[in-house]
């Protein structure tokens, strides 16, 4: 505290302990002045706020007040300084303890030096993407971008993750979607309702299966499609690996649930 703050502190103390104020005044002008100057020096390092707290605590009996002998009163500033220092130390100690107990688990480093997310982060991001409809492969490709300078591992050497560069994607048939919308249990219970079809992929390779010329009709032996409206996107179709694997069947049902509600439009086509 500075000189002015010391005056504030002393006024506060004198108000709470008038006998000390009277004792100081009775010392005589010069001795009183020099005692207060000494006290101001003693309290120079003590923040005013903390010194005022000590005054209050002493007055309330939370701290032992300064004794009433002269030799004790002379050390008033010293007592206040020590009590304030103890309180500050206690507070810091409590803050550290509090920070330790409320500290969340040490977070994993956000990024590896090469800019890739940590494994835990990448896993969490992938899980979010998978929940929002991506396959694991797509999610991984999105979260951990392939380094262009490094060839991808052999199993990832496809330009298109949907068709694996074949240009065709096998998807659940409209008819199965229709049946699911009529009654999902029919898809789960009756294999006969699980139908598939092939659609052109929306990638470059898929284009080879499309005849998009407006000027000439496709040749008679053309076995492809004539509109991009049938091209595969994960929203338009549900890709299928197996119609007999219960897990795959369940994936299809989940996809339907995300895109349609059973019974919402009766037997309408999806
Ligand atoms: Zn493709």
Plain-language structure description:
There is one protein chain. The protein contains 12 helices and 2 strands. It has 270 residues and is mainly alpha-helical. It folds into 3 domains: 3-102, no CATH class; 116-157, no CATH class; 159-270, no CATH class. It has a two-stranded antiparallel sheet. Helix 1 packs across helix 2 (18-26), helix 4 crosses helix 6 and helix 7 crosses helix 8 (136-143). The radius of gyration is 40 Å and the shape is rod-shaped. Bound molecules: zinc ion (ZN). Zinc ion (ZN) binds next to helix 11. The site of zinc ion has 7 residues, from helix 11.
Please specify the SSE layout and strand pairing.
Elements: H1 3-16, H2 18-26, H3 29-42, H4 48-60, H5 70-73, H6 76-102, H7 119-131, H8 136-143, E1 168-172, H9 174-182, H10 184-189, E2 196-200, H11 204-207, H12 246-259
Antiparallel strand pairs: 1-2
Bound molecules: zinc ion.
Zinc ion binds at residues 160, 162-163, 201, 203, 205-206.
Report the end-to-end length measured between terminal Cα atoms.
78 Å
Quote the beta fraction: under 5%
Strand order of the largest sheet: 1-2
The unique ligands bound to this protein are: zinc ion
In total, how many beta strands?
A: 2
Mean pLDDT: 85
Number of domains: 3
Can you describe this structure in just a few lines?
By secondary structure, the protein is mostly helical. Helices cover 50% and strands 4% of the residues. It has helices at residues 3-16, 18-26, 29-42, 48-60, 70-73, 76-102, 119-131, 136-143, 174-182, 184-189, 204-207, 246-259; strands spanning 168-172, 196-200.
